[in-house]
Design brief:
single chain, alpha/beta, Rossmann fold, 10 helices
Length: 239
């Protein structure tokens, strides 16, 4: 019979430095967040100089699928309130390959630039490729979009919801960092709703709108019209 898991808040004690999180979480095993009882723990912390500024990178393990997630931290966020925060879901085609079908790479860069301009901020890099359907299914969805479907209908045609992402992981990561409350950099009301559902205090929403290009205009219009994102459905196009 396995040992009973403790409530998360009972084991996430405040620490003085990010490095101390590794030792604090060494035996962390809580009852988890969300319907799937997701539990994360800090595994490593290191410096990460970037073109946007100097951040600390905090690596998390999770008990759901063993995927690693990252927090990019600028300034002292431990125990802080009203921390400017961005949740960014992994997009290999955009983030790494420079795809113009989405605005993910620009969102990532603008998010890092924003948190590095603040006294303190955090960007959570979440391994939820293709709105949570995975890389292979994302390319399958792209193929359907090439034949006329929008992003929502392509996901539905593959048997998924329009957005399969779960932000319970993000909520636990913020709790692990002992962030008291956030100012969320987002256009997506679902992120706010899910964080609040899991006990994260969202003080404010900061718009995060990226101008369209020729290739992603329809994608952005679909996000606004069908997925409820708080963006201009016909944003000005980049030159």
């Amino acid at each position: 019979m396995s040992a009973q898991r403790t409530p998360c808040t009972a084991s996430l004690t405040p620490v003085a430095r990010l490095e101390d999180l590794v030792e604090r979480d060494r035996n962390h095993d809580c009852e988890g967040f969300g319907a799937q009882r997701i539990c994360v723990r800090v595994e490593a912390v290191a410096d990460l100089p970037t073109r946007f500024g100097h951040v600390r990178v905090v690596a998390f393990w999770n008990n759901r699928d063993a995927k690693e997630h990252l927090a990019l931290v600028h300034g002292d966020v431990l125990g802080a309130k009203d921390v400017v925060t961005r949740l960014h879901s992994e997009c290999l085609t955009g983030d790494a390959l420079g795809s113009l079908r989405c605005d993910c790479r620009e969102q990532l860069g603008a998010g890092l630039e924003r948190i590095c301009a603040e006294p303190r901020g955090v960007l959570l890099y979440l391994r939820q490729e293709g709105r949570g359907i995975g890389l292979l299914n994302k390319i399958r969805a792209y193929s359907l979009q090439d034949h006329g479907l929008d992003t929502v209908d392509a996901n539905l045609a593959l048997g998924f919801r329009d957005d399969e992402r779960d932000y319970a992981i993000a909520a636990h990561m913020l709790a692990s960092l002992t962030v008291g409350s956030v100012r969320l950099l987002t256009n997506n009301p679902r992120k706010i709703a899910q964080l609040e559902q899991h006990g994260i205090v969202v003080r404010d929403r900061l718009p995060h709108v990226i101008p369209a290009n020729t290739h992603n205009r329809f994608y952005l219009e679909t996000k606004a019209k069908r997925s409820g994102h708080l963006i201009d459905a016909d944003p000005p196009e980049r030159g």
